[in-house]
């Protein structure tokens, strides 16, 4: 008999039938045959699934009429009946075993073993073949293996840490102790070696954490000042190693993440035309740019939510399809000078601040809420006297602070913290503070934490804790340098980055503070360059 016929599934089936008719006891040998047959069928089914997943067509003949398909799916019930028959033989008298029976029986065992090994080898071969096939597709697929072993994986938990970005690069700090875990430094090209990144305007100004990956937007005011910078970079949040980076030559604005894509907005200016923004779409795993499109507007912020991109622009508020920029709805603004702050989307509602400047007098702002699907305005606050930089929300209220100049000193700032009902925009309370609120507050466990800056000639550099229900002050701590990033609440602590950007009397630098809920300082960390981004993973 030809070897191929001997190991044909149909022939093997007939041999097993013959064995079952011998009337032997369900001894170890018989059970072994049964187990091997189960392994045999399992491997066949695995091979079939692999073949279907690979979608290799008919190159090998499997796609036309594979011999695995000729095996009836009813074999599962037949196997069960055979097992029952074998179990039922245990009361029968032993029968003499002829040498030929042993020969056939052991031949059968060898056959099934060989078939199982053969199927396993085929599966391994197919996997190897697929890897070789992918390697011919260039850089996009040569990273395929990295997706499994060393590449962005957004489905896992982000490693705990305080991640700060600025003109030096990215630094990860232990959230409980303030000790540095790793640092990624901006690398300058050969012609600019030795030049501080701050002198070139090069730095990380936005960080997004997702899964095991830190996505950073690196900007530079000097043309071609860096090698991997002026673009988007994906770092391993565990150890700071680089997954991928992508250069972007145009002026960078913002970054958003969603649906397995990284969206980066850029802007170009023309003497004749209005600014043109371009949205670049990168694959989250490889960094390969998939497509891009242009919009005739200046995009200052992007927020991704529910497969849509929400844009704050110089024309107003827009919701677009991320794939091609199709406008779903818009809320245009006719005022000549205004600014839309970053959009916050909670429970299907878009919240943002519109800031208006006036050449004849002080600026004013208002908070507005829109239905995320239709763009219909739900409510709007009364005018707020001052400039709003960003807002914070919880399930009850919208919180914000303003910047106003002191009436008698131009370089001294005053501020007020406000709370508005999140359902209708009606005011809850307002609390004056010494110093401008130049970032979003953060609210946690019924407390609003507000960073304030008194101005170059002022003294109101503080972190202030207010009761979220009443606005009454719980505690206040002075800070050293002044300008503060949006604080973050996590791990039972409040993290605040305090940056010295304007005071020429002190060297440029940043301090990061971690406060407990009662105002006790848990730790602080100093770094010799300015920071522009702060994110925390618990």
UniProtKB/TrEMBL annotation:
Taxonomic superkingdom: Bacteria
Transmembrane domains' residue ranges: 106-126
SUPFAM superfamilies per the UniProt record, alphabetical: Quinoprotein alcohol dehydrogenase-like
InterPro entries tied to this protein: PQQ_b-propeller_rpt, PQQ_rpt_dom, Quinoprotein_ADH-like_sf, WD40/YVTN_repeat-like_dom_sf
Pfam families referenced in this protein's UniProt entry, alphabetically: PQQ_2 (PF13360)
Alphabetic keyword roster: Membrane, Transmembrane, Transmembrane helix
Domain Pyrrolo-quinoline quinone repeat per the UniProt entry, residue ranges: 364-528
Protein name per the record: Pyrrolo-quinoline quinone repeat domain-containing protein
């Amino acid at each position: 008999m030809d070897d191929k016929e001997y190991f044909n599934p149909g022939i093997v089936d007939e041999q097993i039938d013959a064995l079952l008719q011998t009337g032997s006891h369900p001894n170890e040998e018989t059970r072994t045959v049964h187990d091997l047959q189960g392994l045999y069928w399992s491997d066949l089914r695995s091979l079939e699934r692999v073949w279907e997943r690979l979608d290799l067509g008919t190159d090998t003949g499997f796609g036309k009429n594979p011999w695995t398909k000729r095996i009836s799916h009813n074999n599962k019930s037949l196997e069960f009946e055979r097992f029952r028959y074998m179990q039922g033989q245990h009361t029968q008298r032993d029968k003499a075993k002829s040498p030929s029976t042993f020969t056939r029986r052991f031949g059968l065992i060898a056959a099934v073993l060989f078939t199982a090994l053969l199927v396993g080898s085929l599966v391994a071969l197919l996997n190897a073949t697929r890897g070789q096939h992918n390697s011919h597709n260039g850089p996009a697929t040569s990273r395929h293996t990295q997706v499994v072993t060393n590449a962005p994986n957004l489905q896992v938990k982000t490693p705990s840490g305080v991640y700060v970005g600025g003109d030096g690069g990215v630094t990860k700090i232990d959230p409980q102790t303030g000790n540095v875990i790793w640092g990624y430094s901006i690398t300058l090209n050969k012609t600019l070696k030795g030049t501080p990144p701050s002198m070139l305007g090069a730095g990380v100004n936005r960080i997004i954490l997702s899964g095991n990956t830190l996505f950073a937007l690196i900007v530079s005011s000097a043309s071609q000042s860096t090698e991997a910078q002026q673009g988007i970079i994906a770092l391993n949040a565990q150890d700071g190693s680089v997954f991928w980076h992508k250069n972007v030559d145009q002026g960078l604005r913002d970054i958003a993440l969603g649906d397995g894509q990284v969206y980066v907005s850029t802007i170009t200016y023309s003497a004749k035309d209005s600014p043109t923004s371009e949205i670049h779409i990168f694959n989250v795993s490889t960094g390969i740019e998939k497509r891009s499109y242009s919009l005739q507007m200046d995009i200052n912020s992007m927020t991704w939510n529910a497969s849509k991109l929400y844009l704050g622009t110089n024309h107003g508020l827009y919701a677009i399809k991320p794939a091609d920029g199709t406008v779903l709805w818009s809320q245009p603004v006719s005022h000549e000078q205004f600014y839309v702050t970053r959009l916050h989307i909670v429970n299907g509602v878009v919240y943002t601040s519109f800031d208006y400047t006036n050449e004849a007098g002080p600026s004013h702002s208002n908070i507005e809420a829109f239905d995320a699907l239709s763009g219909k305005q739900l409510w709007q606050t009364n005018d707020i006297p001052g400039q709003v930089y960003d807002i914070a929300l919880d399930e009850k209220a919208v919180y914000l602070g303003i910047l106003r100049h002191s009436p008698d000193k131009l370089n001294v700032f005053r501020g007020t913290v406000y709370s508005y009902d999140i359902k209708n925009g009606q005011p809850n309370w307002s609390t004056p503070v010494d110093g401008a609120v130049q970032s979003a507050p953060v609210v946690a466990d019924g407390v609003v934490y507000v960073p304030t800056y008194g101005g170059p000639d002022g003294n109101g550099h503080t972190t202030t804790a207010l009761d979220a229900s009443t606005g009454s002050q719980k505690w206040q701590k002075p800070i050293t340098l002044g300008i503060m990033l949006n604080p973050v609440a996590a791990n039972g602590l409040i993290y605040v980055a305090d940056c010295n950007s304007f005071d020429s009397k002190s060297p440029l630098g940043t301090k990061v503070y971690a406060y407990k809920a009662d105002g006790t300082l848990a730790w602080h960390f100093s770094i010799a360059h300015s920071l522009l981004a702060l994110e925390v993973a618990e």
